Amino acid sequence: MKWITREHPKIDRLACPWLIRKFIDPEAEFIYVPFEEVVPQAMALQAIPFDVPDVELTHYGDECTFDYLVKKYKIKDPAVKSMAPIVRGADTDRHDISAQASGLWAISAGLAYNHKDDHDLLEKGMLIYDALYSWAAHLQQEKHTQQPFEHLLLEVFNRFIRSRQEGGKRMPAWAKELKEMIQDHIDTNLSLKELSKDLDINPSYLSREFSKHFDNLSFGDYIRKQRIEKAIQLMADPSYSLTDIGYLTGFSDQSHFTRIFKKITGDNPSQYRKKLHKK
């Protein structure tokens, strides 16, 4: 069967073909076309459209097309179930819902940047999702907090939690330290849910304490705010295009970057940059 979607895939439009080929249609042929041609070409080629508005196989509420395919085709595989929130978090720029979401986004964005041919990109993406599936099926219990930054972040939280449990009323310097680390690692995210497991602390408690000391923002919202502030700094350099800035500040694609930028600043990126250069 032929399946058709938008060109220039990054996450959902690579994850869905992997899922389709592995669990739904092993002989699937995938076609990538410009956005406005998906539905007309689907009719002309008798292909199944996916991951575009106003078709059946698309986003619903907070869930992405990968989620809908899992439900529609009643895929019960436990590893696929584990992959779903990772794909969802990466595709919808909600890296706080899965510790692996930011990593999947980073790899996918880099892959798309390096490979401009969509079918070449698809074949490379298949390898990524094969690897993610193997992790989900066999390696989830393996610890991956091996980077110095991750250990340091956990250490900061541990010191904070210990000071609270011991009844100390004076706030330690962890908040300033954590802010500096986040600024240095804009595209490296750990979810509070995952941190709560490592710390053996109720996740709702940890989330509540975080927002008190970070501008009354959730972990995810605070990261997005920091990314926009970094984007504004980069806009001063004309050598960076808005597409470059979106990549460098950790957004899954240009539409995510534009939406979050406008939500925080009130202007879309191009409008803001014009105002910036007029000053």
Write structural notes for this entry.
The chain is mainly alpha-helical and 279 residues long. It folds into three domains: 2-139, no CATH class; 148-216; 221-278, Arc Repressor Mutant, subunit A. The protein has 14 helices and three strands. The protein has a three-stranded parallel beta sheet, covered by helices on one side. Helix 1 links the parallel strand 1 and strand 2. It is globular, with a radius of gyration of 20 Å. The N and C termini lie far apart (55 Å). The relative contact order is 0.09.
The share of residues in extended strands comes to under 5%
Number of alpha- plus pi-helical segments:
14
Strands, count: 3
Alpha-beta classification: mainly alpha
Give the neighbour order of strands across the main sheet: 2-1-3
Helical content, roughly? Answer: 55-70%
Question: What's the story with the biggest beta sheet?
Answer: 3 strands, parallel
Q: Please tell me how large the radius of gyration is.
A: 20 Å
How far apart are the termini? 55 Å
Weakly predicted, low-confidence segments: none
SSE order, one letter for each helix or strand: EHEHEHHHHHHHHHHHH
Mean pLDDT: 82
Shape descriptor: globular
Number of domains: 3
